Amino acid sequence: MKNNFFCGLLVLGSAFLLLAGCRGDDPSTPTAAPAHRLERQNSPYLRQHADNTVAWYPWGEEAFQKAKREKKLIFLSIGYSTCHWCHVMEEESFMDQKIGDYLNQNFVAVKVDRETRPDVDAVYMTFVQSLNGNGGWPLNVFLTPERTPVYGGTYYPNPAKFDRPGFMEVLQKLQKAWLENPELFASKAEEIAQTIAQENEPEAGSDVPSEALLEKALKSWTSRFDSQYGGFLPAPKFPSPPDLTFLLRSSDPEAREMALKTLEAIALGGIHDHLEGGFHRYSTDPRWLVPHFEKMLYDQAQLMAVYAEAYALTQNDLFRQAVVKTDHYLEARLRSPQGAYYSAEDADSANPDNPSQHSEGAFYVWSYQELQSQLSNQELRLAEKVFGLSPQGNAENDPQEELKGKSILFLTKPLSTERERALVEKLSTLRKKRPRPQRDEKILTEWNAMTAHGYAQAGRYLNEPGYLQRSGELLKFLEERMVKDGRLQRSSLERSAEGEGFAIDYAQLIRAYLSLFEATGEPHFLQRSLHWQSELQRLFWDDEKGGFFDSESQGELPCRRKSFTDGATLSANSCALLNLGKLYAITGRQSFQTSLDRLLKLEKHLLERAPTSAPGALSAVKSWYGFHDTLLLFSQDTEWLRKVRPLYLPYQTLIPITSEENQNKLKRLIPLLPDWSGRSQAYACRGFACELPVEKLDKLIESLKNRDRTPPKIDSK
């Protein structure tokens, strides 16, 4: 953010700091029991807070009008169902009668699920990150009645600890400052609102980003790479699939090695559930040993895709097993009876020995005494060798000391013997007797579209038709259950879908359709990608300045935001860039090239300032300089597609045509498509100029395997 933004925040913040010895209204004065407005909300997270002492409102006009009418600040708390520190703050503060009474008397309290309203979360997260230098959940922000943020942070303890102020202290200081000097709030709020709006509109460059940015980004990743354990320092370490995907696809051996070493470390580490598959959210330590134990659907979806690509590149069975085990976890734990996938499993669960107490990782960790009582001496010795277990426990980096004396399963090497696999089965059976973590059974369009993409990539690169079928079934579910009046909906829970979809919902759906089209050649998948791209363009494109807005309208927010920075997942504009490149390469439509160029120019200054902040955009830049390589594959012989599609050619778009009927259907969508000849043949094309066809499968495979896996450097002028 600009300096004037920081200055405004510091001036406003100083008003609170000067009140350190002051107290506001008597927090012991009781109020009426809160109305449980969250009970029927379409979000497990909001329902979890329905019986708090805080009289929460959902995000909406009822809360905003109350704040205006009563001239009160809005206390906005944003989190999600499986968030550990959200649970901690709820138990410490939102179930506390004194804090509930104080909030109800002096503020209008609003709860938001970041997963159903990512637009609200993104605007206020940007503010808190600018104020404090970091962010996270729970995200707690104080807003004027006009919804402009004036102060905020993440977790506030009750009482004060971890060098953080106590929550009641924060509330009292803020309330006193609001009552004594509302003009200060009003003036700074206006300044903040203007700055938020300005920062949301990046200045477009005169041309697209240069290839030099790719090298600059690589140097930045290299400088932070942990050569011993993989991943990027400092800890905590996140898998960051968008980063790993870009590095894996690089022609630079060092970049590719960073990705492969990290993927290997994650697959062997404690962040990977070695008993039933699936990946935890992140590692608290450099070794990938001690995770934050929640399991998110978007991590499973993205890592499935990345590991499938890594297997295609290396044929390393460790990577194939990571895909297979992730599929097992998804099918066993997150798949709904309707066929879509639930959002997450919690980090916390009941302690097996004392179910009245909950702690993080209780379902996953082991005491040595438990293992001694359940395993034979031979099995125990094998567990120590294979999983790095010890009598003292191996959870060395445990900030909350909940894991003291406990062990987390990690592999010292890939499993290779029947004895080792039998041990996994026995431990898995034992663990199933424990109380399971809570599951968030909300279905999100974006995350399910990502899962469809993950299955499409897994089916392609592992040559598993069953995965391709799952991808297609999931996309059919989204079309049938998550569309209302022709518009994508964001989420569903127990009843019909609701909440208008965001740009990222559309973009991820398009991406999944394109991936499945490349893997199968089915014209329907290309047709649906074109349909939803048209809708994305109509509803979200900024005709004046370019780029896709996150939401259809500004709604109740200070600005209509555009997302460019990638985090744990791709931003809407990064995902759209990748789709536009594919769509142009396949169809040759100039409108896609025009949008692609405008969007790349918008990304230029961001990438120059922070080149690793948008790896999805970097992949689009790399593809742009490759002039949209394509491979047209004509063959009714299933062996051709079976042999070609698992080859790792990440910057070459595959267009399979598997019958004359399909060719006729695709001809309506791809005007430049050659005529069907009845012979099996393949055309390698660049910039819509094709080489002579290859009609021998062995010769085609040899030429593709020897092909440079990334575009050559060329003069963009």
Commentary on this structure:
The structure is a single chain. The protein is α+β, with helices and mostly antiparallel strands. Helix content is 48%, strand content 12%. It is built from 26 helices and 22 strands. It has a 5-stranded mixed beta sheet with strand order 1-3-2-4-5. Strands 15, 16, 17 and 18 form a 4-stranded antiparallel beta sheet that branches. It has a 4-stranded mixed beta sheet with strand order 20-19-21-22. The protein is globular.
Task: Annotate the secondary structure layout.
Elements: H1 3-17, H2 44-48, E1 57-58, H3 61-70, E2 73-79, H4 84-94, H5 97-106, E3 107-113, H6 118-132, E4 139-143, E5 149-153, H7 167-180, H8 182-199, H9 212-224, H10 241-248, H11 253-268, E6 282-283, E7 291-292, E8 295-296, H12 297-314, H13 317-334, E9 344-345, E10 348-351, E11 354-360, E12 366-367, H14 368-374, H15 377-387, E13 406-407, H16 418-431, E14 439-440, E15 443-444, H17 445-461, H18 465-481, E16 483-484, E17 487-492, E18 498-500, H19 503-520, H20 523-540, H21 572-587, H22 590-609, H23 615-624, E19 629-634, H24 638-644, E20 652-657, H25 660-669, E21 681-686, E22 689-690, H26 697-705
Parallel strand pairs: 1-3, 2-3, 19-20
Antiparallel strand pairs: 2-4, 4-5, 6-7, 8-9, 9-14, 10-11, 12-13, 15-17, 16-17, 17-18, 19-21, 21-22
Helix pairs in contact: 1-8, 5-7, 10-11, 10-12, 10-23, 12-13, 12-17, 17-18, 17-19, 18-19, 19-20, 19-21, 21-22, 21-23
Features:
717 residues; alpha+beta; 5-stranded mixed β-sheet; 4-stranded antiparallel β-sheet; 26 helices; disordered C terminus
